[in-house]
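hi! just following up on the protien thing from before. the input was this:
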Amino acid sequence: MALQISATNPEHPALLLELPWQTPLEQWPEEYLVPLPRGISRHVVRYARAGDEVIAVKELAERPALREYQLLRDLDRLAIPAVDALAVITGRTDAAGDALEPVLVTRHLGGSQPYRSMFETTLRPATMHRLMDALAVLLVRLHLAGFAWGDCSLSNTLFRRDAGAYAAYLVDAETGELHPRLSPGQRDYDLDLARVNISGELLDLEASGALHPSVDPVDFGTEICARYGRLWQELTRTSVYPAGKYHYIERRIRRLNDLGFDVAEMQIEHASNGDTVTFVPKVVDAGHHQRQLLRLTGLDAEENQARRLLTDLESWMATQDDYAPGDPLGARPEVLAHRWVREVFRPTVRAVPVELRGAMDPAQIYHELLEHRWYLSERAQHDIGLDTAVDDYIVTVLPRARETLRPTAD
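and the predicted 3d structure came back as:
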């Protein structure tokens, strides 16, 4: 059988052909591999370079490879945080002509880490709570889209820093199923699996001495269910308000916006007696602040990063002479936003040497600089300015953080 490459981009097959597909993945020479931390997987997984791309290559049988490839493409279409599927390669044979397993090729998620590499230094309980928050948000987003994961766990998730929090990405869709809508039983099944898997993973870390002594693995496994339940209730519950109190509906929508969600479609019904109004958010889309930042500036960021950048943008706009909300003669917000990108955001990020940035993307760098500015200003009891904060950050913070930011070998 000849080698066959099914790819999402016509440029990828030519780049992928340069890799040693006639060699079992476990035996690939070091010259092709990229030393990045890997999580636990039931399959052989390696990171490699294809042109300018860093890719993850996973060996598995043809049918599940093709199925996972399609599911990941479906999740991308639904704007769900997951790794990008690039190709499925079948028809592999070794030098003797014996068949090798097909592979699924995905794009490496820049700046992400598997949970085990995060526990190389013992995580504080507060950081672990943020990981549970991120995983709960991911699971809710999957369920709202009708996706039953079938194997929710820390091992099947990648985490990226998102301002002071984390963003979670699905990395393994092999057991997933996409439906028009999930039943309560399907959601409960996913939650029960998540609870058992997370508790088991944390017990394993506890046995290896990598878990903070105050963390109870079983309690943390249960915590994902509680956090999921609170978020799901807030996003989907039916509200009944007195007739005429339409600001209550606006307040509910703003609360959802604060959680990072937009109400894309809603149902409002008046009671037959006219005394009450029932409000149901029918379609809820994540990424409220992401979309707002992208619309204003063209910057693509994680949700919490976008929220922080928007706050800084609004503060900066208020200092501009031509900022006049509601005045038709004032500069439009989009014009001011692009000026902020040109005069503030980009020069600030570029002031940090590329070789010192590690895995941080520009939005995360800017957030870190704002945090450092706040810290120094608090200590000095006055605003020290962004330029001073950048200089101090480069000298005092990055040298200490460089080792943790740089990708390390498995």
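Residues 404-410 have pLDDT under 50 and may be disordered.
The two ends are 34 Å apart (CA to CA).
cheers
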